[in-house]
Design a protein that fits this description.
about 180 residues, five-stranded antiparallel beta sheet, alpha+beta
């Protein structure tokens, strides 16, 4: 019985990782306050979706689609819905999932006590898995936060952002989007 208990504890230790921070799981998109999602974001309401592509792909997509020539690409990008002019700003945000790995900690602890050695597995005491998101805020000359739940233009802006997200994720050659419009 004691051997079984010892074996069980040993198995738990070798398979255990303690999560310190878990990135949010967003299947499609989420509309939330920017500061609530990540502290570095503005207080406005943002449209957030996971970005499976490499860094700067969304920047290149927006730059190409709106033909901005690398001028104010991530801030105040103009677009129109039913003749009304809006602007969006976007942020590429990383929220890593961070865990403590118990196996390397235990092995280093045993080795340091038994053989008076420095930690040899120090690099793997913790692990980080990056999760990237695109956060978009929308405003106009008449509204400071077009995604706010009381905004008059919220529904039309959300429809536009969902279509833009779908187009971005399905397009590999961003020059194609210039000819679609």
């Amino acid at each position: 019985m004691k051997k079984l208990l010892s074996l069980s504890i040993l198995l738990v230790l070798f398979n255990a990782c303690i999560p310190l921070r878990i990135a949010p799981k967003i299947d499609d998109y989420k509309v939330t306050k920017g500061k609530r999602f990540k502290r570095s974001l503005p207080k406005k309401t943002v449209f957030v979706f996971p970005d499976p592509k490499d860094e700067d792909h969304f920047y290149n997509y927006v730059n190409t689609k709106f033909q901005l020539n690398d001028y104010y690409v991530d801030v105040e990008v103009p677009f129109a819905i039913d003749g009304d002019e809006f602007f969006f700003s976007f942020y590429e945000v990383e929220i890593p999932t961070k865990t403590i790995n118990l196996i390397p900690l235990v092995v280093d602890g045993i080795l340091s006590q038994a053989a008076d050695m420095d930690p040899i597995l120090e690099e793997v005491h913790t692990s980080r898995i990056g999760n990237w998101y695109i956060a978009i805020e929308v405003f106009s000359k008449t509204e400071k936060d077009c995604l706010h739940e009381n905004s008059v233009s919220r529904d039309s802006v959300l429809t536009y952002l969902r279509e833009m997200k779908t187009e971005y994720l399905s397009t590999h050659n961003y020059n194609e989007v210039v000819f679609k419009d």
